[in-house]
Every structure is written in C-alpha cells, then in structure tokens.
Amino acid sequence: MVKVTLRKKKISKGMISLYLDFYPAIPDPKGTGKLTRREFLNIHLHEKPADVFEKEANKNREDLAKQIRINRENEVNKLEVYSDFERERLEIKRLGDRDFIDFFSKHLKDPSYKCTLSKLQSFAPKGLKFADLTEKLCNDFRAYLLDPKTSLARNSAKIYFDRFKTILKTAYKEGYLHFDLNAKIQSFGFEETERQYLTLEELDILVQTPCSNDTFKRIALFSALTGMRWSDIKKLQWKEVHNTSEGYSIHYRQKKTKGVEVLPITDQAYSLLGSMENANGNVFDPIPKTTAVDILKRWINAAGLTKQITFHSFRHTFATLQVSEGTDIYRVQKLLGHREISTTQIYAKIVDKSKREAVNKIKLKL
Known about the structure:
Blueprint (H helix, E strand, L loop, with lengths): L2 E8 L4 E13 L7 E12 L5 H26 L6 H13 L3 H6 L5 H13 L11 H12 L7 H20 L7 H4 L15 H9 L5 H13 L3 H4 L7 E4 L2 E7 L6 E6 L1 H5 L17 H14 L9 H13 L4 H8 L4 H20 L6
Antiparallel strand pairs: 1-2, 2-3, 4-5, 5-6
Helix pairs in contact: 4-6, 5-6, 9-13, 13-15, 14-15
C-alpha cells in the first residue's frame, strides 16, 4: 500500500510550500515514465501569520491540502476497488513487467557496465523482466560469467558481476524491486595475476637498444615515466599538455574509466613528446596495434630481455618503481587514476616479494 503524507517545506519570503510524500514511490503523474516520491500542491502557508486573516487563510489552505492528500491516497491505492492484498499483487506485477535490460541500459556508468550488459544479453537472449530476477537467476549469471566458454578472465568476470549487483541495488533503491536482491547474492574474489615489469636497469637497456620505430620507442618510454595507458597516450593531444611555473602536466580524460585526470610529468617525460606541429593535433603519430605488438617483440628481443613484456608492462613498471622508491601507495593510486586502492596495492605486494627474493640470495654455509 502506498502511504501519502502531507509535508511542509520552507521557501522564500517567509512562506511554506505544501507537498505530498509518497512511499513507496509512484509513477510520475506527469506521465514521464519515472518514479517519484513528491507532488507539490502549489499551496502556500504563511510561516509567521501577521494577523487573524493570514491565520484563517493558513487554516483553509491546510484543510484543502489535507483533503487532497486523502483523495490522492485513495486514487493511488484504488481503495474503492482493491483490497490491500490485491493492491500489493498488482503493484508487484506492474513493476515485474518492466524491462530490466532497458533499465540497465539507462544506468550505464562506464565502459565496464556496457560490457556487463552485453554479457547479460548473451545470457538472456530472449530478454529479461524484473519478474525474472531471482536469486537463482543471478547465481546462474555468475556461473555463466565464470564459464571458460565465455573467454573471460576471472578478474574481468568479477568486475562484470559486481557491476550487475550495483544495478540491482539501484533498482531496489528506485522501487523497482521489493527486496534487496543484491544483498542476497555473493560475488567472488579477484585472482592475483603475475604482473610483468622492468627493473630500472632493464629499462636503461631498452633506452640504449635501437628500435625499428622511433615513435613507438618514445611512446613506450613515456608510459614507463608516467604510467599512462596505451589507449590514453595514442589519443593524447597537444592541448592536453600544460606548462606552468610548477612544471609540465597532462590534463586528460581516461578512456577506460572516463575519469578526468591531472598528471604531473617530468622534464624527461616531456622531452619524449617531440615537437608540436599542430596545437589541436595528436602528440604521437598513430601506430596500428598489431604493428605495435610486432615492434615491441623485436625491440625486447634485440635488448636481450627474456620477460614476457606487453605494452601494459610499461605502466606496471612505472607503478612498481614508484613504490620501490618509497612513494606512498595512495599517491601512486592517484598517479595511475585507479578508483580502488585495492587495485594499486598489488604493486606493494610485488615490491615485498622482490625484497624477499633479494634477502634470500644471501646464504651462509653454516
């Protein structure tokens, strides 16, 4: 049953506005298709009546508002037709018939939500209504994401499922679900992966090793000095490069998270950008991804390095070297643009592991 309460809100010029508060929310009477908790009545009271006339006006207006409240409560609950039990069943059916996929698509927050939606559509190709959402279905979707047939890494599957749970929580808060389904289903933990990185000595070897593509070499070293991703560097424009009295910095929007970042860079990193030809153009000439992979492989081999290095390893290198040199983990989080500190803490574990390996190299013949 929808409870309708008459409430007051102070507004300007010493007046009080009267409005109705609906709980739970009801479809907007204006026909917008959205749920709403409020209906302003355009009835106003004097906060401090100056005389008997204003007091009488307040009483009449408040009596009118009270009658409107009763009428509205009768309307939304259809008291003259349905019992409480019938009204509850009708409300559940009305919301249950809503399209959950459509609701999901309207609440996308970043690219990972779009990927989750795509997987959900593959899981339920015939569509999904709110009435279909059960604890079993949610657990089946989790199992689907973890199935090797989906070709998802465990960590990607976790991110997708957590985004799914977030949308369920949003649906509950907005009144589309009558219970918190998100709280009933369990996620799963991240799987720690081996992150390849270069030591400072190995990075210096690469600096001295000729590369078949000078632009690629500058991009790779720029990533190692800044921690920027390939996707962000390849779209970097000169207008995003700033020079102030405090030094150089990059002001850009991350492609992956859509977060706006201000990243300080060193003079050495700036020197890798080359010369500006077009103030509104890209800093680096475009290099196809497949070409870049081949260039990197030949460059690593020429340097005599045996590690399985990808371009993303340069970002890992930046983070690992920062932590190794004592940079605070929270500052590294900000430099990398991570949303969660747990994502950054993996680098502290890498450094701890390397310290342990270094200590174990010293052995005495006791």
